[in-house]
Write a structure and sequence with these properties.
The protein is of the alpha/beta class and about 350 residues long. The protein has a domain of about 190 residues: Rossmann fold. It is built from ten helices and nine strands. The protein has a four-stranded parallel sheet, sandwiched between helices. Strands 6-5-7 form a three-stranded antiparallel sheet. Strand 5 and strand 6 form a beta hairpin. Helix 4 crosses helix 5, helix 4 packs parallel to helix 6 and helix 6 crosses helix 7.
């Protein structure tokens, strides 16, 4: 008897591809659309899992772009503390696609965030990347000057990168009611003040997230028509939800929307691909082997398992060795004076906090 399943490869069958294998040996999870060469200039952004990808790529001497590097003499620990070397630009975690779109529009002069400088104990913070200056700055004007420089780096990033790796983290966000400005954290948790009449909770749906990325892609490709995009979804659950749902239900909604959006984008556009790290790390087939005791954080073996899959599918990066500066010859500066990172340079440890702090978290 002929069956439509007769000629399918072994990876298409749960028994042989999953249940009879340990999670550390699952293979063929990813058939990439495009190949990474040793000199492919890779930019990273998003929620926490992008940090892992960036760190492992640097360890293989891949050409990871870093356009906002730490000042000379700053220790590795303080570099991490102040947000250097974690992503390709010092934007901190970008949890939502709306935040990514908003940052891009701001860098291109198409958007100005409202209530963008927050205060705490006489110190001032950039509300759009509040964690990068843990002690704040001495004035609101100093925050604005820093941001102007930062936005110049963001503009340069899209022009210099070949592939933009983005990890989708959350659908929940806090916003400025009147302007729609999206914040990475809620006002009043790290700095600023939560005001119900000014700030609102937002939970984006599939259509909104999808349309936001399509719009972001269009803006980024105007800057660089050849740019490719690799999406991942963070497997880290919400630490808290501001919705009226149980946190487990809210997490399932958020991650399901993001996974569906990533899959649809990869189907719709030739230059968008999806790397299924979420699919492995969130599967019951791992039997909890890749999660910490709190069932939230991904353990080192879990990260290593998905990065093994990544490098198996990208063999040219497995032994990459590129002595030049990512984005151009050593010492070359972009239009805003930023320099690329030397591939293979030591990268500071990642800070992985895939959380949305709500205004009432406890």
């Amino acid at each position: 008897m002929i069956s439509p399943y007769s000629d399918l490869p072994p990876r298409n069958f749960w028994k042989g591809a999953v249940s009879r294998r340990s999670p550390e040996t699952v293979s063929e999870l990813w058939q990439p659309k495009f190949r990474f060469a040793p000199d492919t200039r890779i930019a990273t952004a998003g929620s926490c899992f992008a940090q892992h990808i960036s760190r492992y790529l640097r360890a293989r001497n891949a050409a990871v772009v870093d356009l906002e590097r730490a000042p000379p003499g700053l220790s590795a620990a303080n570099s991490v503390k102040y947000g250097y070397g974690i992503y390709s630009v010092r934007y901190g975690n970008i949890y939502t696609v709306r935040h990514l779109l908003q940052l891009t529009e701001e860098a291109l002069g198409r958007f100005a965030p409202s209530d963008a400088v927050w205060e705490r104990d006489g110190r001032f913070f950039d509300a759009m990347r509040i964690g990068v200056e843990p002690a704040g700055l001495p004035s609101a004007e100093a925050v604005r000057r820093h941001r102007v420089q930062h936005l110049g780096r963001v503009r340069s990033l899209f022009a210099r990168a070949d592939v933009f790796v983005f990890t989708l983290g959350l659908t929940e966000a806090w916003t400025h009611r009147e302007s729609g400005t999206v914040y990475p954290t809620a006002p009043g948790t790290i700095a600023g003040s939560y005001q119900p009449e000014v700030h609102a909770f937002r939970n984006f749906d599939f259509i909104e997230v999808y349309q936001d990325f399509v719009k972001f892609r269009r803006f980024a490709m105007k800057r660089n028509p050849g740019l490719k995009f690799l999406l991942t979804v963070s497997p880290v659950p919400l630490t808290a939800t501001a919705s009226d749902k149980h946190v487990l239900v809210a997490t399932t909604y958020s991650k399901s929307v993001l996974r569906a959006v990533a899959g649809k984008l990869a189907e719709a556009f030739e230059n968008v691909d999806y790397f299924p790290s979420f699919d492995l790390l969130s599967s019951a087939s791992t039997r909890g082997a890749f999660h910490s005791d709190d069932a939230r954080q991904i353990t080192k073996p879990g990260v290593e398992a998905v990065m093994r899959i990544f490098f198996e599918a990208q063999p040219d990066l497995a032994q990459a060795s590129v002595p030049a500066v990512a984005g151009g010859p050593a010492g070359e500066q972009d239009e805003d004076g930023a320099q690329g990172r030397t591939p293979g340079a030591p990268a500071p440890g990642a800070v992985c906090e895939d959380i949305l702090l709500d205004a009432f978290s406890r």
